[in-house]
Amino acid sequence: MYRYSRWGWQLKRRHSERKLLLGFPFCYSTPTPPENEKLASPGPPPIRVSITEMAGRGVFATRRIGSGDLIHTAKPLVSHPSLSSIHSVCYFCLRKLKPVTSSEDCNVRFCSQECEEQSKVFVAVERKADWSAYDDYCRTRGLKYPLLVKRLACMVVSGVASADCLDILQPASLSSEMISEMGEGFSLLQSAFMKAKARDECMAFLTEQWYINVLARFRINSFRIELAGGSYEDLHSLAAASVETEAAVGNAVYMLPSFYNHDCDPNVHIIWIDNVNARLKALREIEAGEELRICYIDASMDHDARQTILFQGFGFRCSCLRCSSGD
Ligand SMILES: [Zn+2]
Ligand SMILES: [Zn+2]
Q1: Minimal CB count within 10 Å: which of 18, 45, 173, 256?
Q2: Based on the structure, what is the number of domains in the chain?
Q3: Which ligand lies nearest to the CA atom of residue 91 in the structure?
């Protein structure tokens, strides 16, 4: 049930290219190294968040943006490595790490002192509890969002995040069946903290309703992080090595990128080069006032498959120009 987090890459729209790319989703027109990248604006990003007629909030260009421009970057509110990557990426920024040689080193690792420093407080909280039952619950059921909930809970307990920090994001609408399935996760999370004798006053936020509210937001606002690696060769090898979710190093939720609406023929794409910090880039020229949209799913799918996944995963029927044309 938690399969539909936003995809980190989008396809260009031309038919010939789409066919070509069916088995090769990592296509960027110009794999420009970040340091040579042309920033759309040296100051604040050239965008504003406004209410749209059809889709609630949306992001709009405040001036003309050139094709290929980096519109803005974004740091996550919450992120977590996937369980399969937990020993091979930085526990904070998800940067890929050199493989460890000693088999006894099964602790989480960091790419830098800075990442270790930034995680210190919530990792200290996390280390006080035994998460084996909770992690097993995630692993056996293939769940990724409860890992984000666990990290957010540790961040709240340690005081580096507020319990309501995701409230501004839109929640998924949940069926009663989904809500009852979340009960087990909540009990495991709560009991891990209780067994660790967390102080009651720090735990007041941790109710089943909080757990459900947060999970409902992770469910439709999380991005699956696939690192592009910064070079075209890496994109090729990544694509060759990737089979569906295995390429993802983790998941993350952002503030501003969550306000972008979806389009099956997007004018903006979101990419990750070497860590969890997202880059929003213009796929073509964008005029002032135009809405900026990203593609939440694999754009190479046909019309019916896209509609099904968008409805099941995000709760809407897409009426973008591409869908309206029947493509
Ligand atoms: Zn790091
Ligand atoms: Zn569409």
Answers
A1: 173
A2: 2
A3: 1
Closest ligand to 110 CA? 1
Q: Could you tell me if 209 and 261 lie in one domain?
A: no
57 & 137 share domain: no
Judge whether 146 lies within some domain.
yes
Residue 8: predicted pLDDT: 46
Phi, psi of 267 (to 5 degrees): -105, -5
Contact 294, 270 (CB under 8 A): yes
Same domain (yes/no): 262, 200:
no
With respect to residue 113, please indicate whether it lies within any of the assigned structural domains: no
CA 327 to ligand 2 center in whole angstroms: 9
> Is residue 48 pLDDT above 90, yes or no?
yes
Structural domain ending residue among the three candidates 221, 241, 267: 221
Q: Which ligand is nearest to the CA of 277?
A: 1
Whether pLDDT at 14 is above 80: no
Mean model confidence pLDDT for the chain: 84
User: At residue 171, does pLDDT exceed 70?
Assistant: yes
- The total of other beta-carbon atoms located within 10 Å of residue 74's CB is 19
In a domain? residue 62: yes
88 pLDDT higher than 60: yes
Cβ neighbours of residue 172 under 8 Å, at least 6 residues apart?
Answer: 216, 217, 219, 220, 314, 315
Is the pLDDT score of 233 beyond 50? no
Q: Which domain holds residue 172?
A: 119-221
User: Do residues 12 and 27 touch, judged by C-beta distance below 8 A?
Assistant: yes
Q: How far is ligand 2, taken at its centre, from the CA of residue 307, in Å?
A: 7
Give the number of whichever ligand sits closest to the CA of residue 321: 2
pTM as predicted: 0.83
Is residue 149 scored above 60 in pLDDT?
yes
Note whether residue 5 is domain-resident: no
Q: Residue 317: nearest ligand to its CA?
A: 2
- Using the mean position of ligand 2's atoms as its centre, give its distance from the Cα of residue 170 in Å: 20
In the reported structure, the alpha carbon of residue 94 is separated from the centroid of ligand 1 by a whole-number distance in angstroms of: 6
14 CA → ligand 2 middle, Å: 15
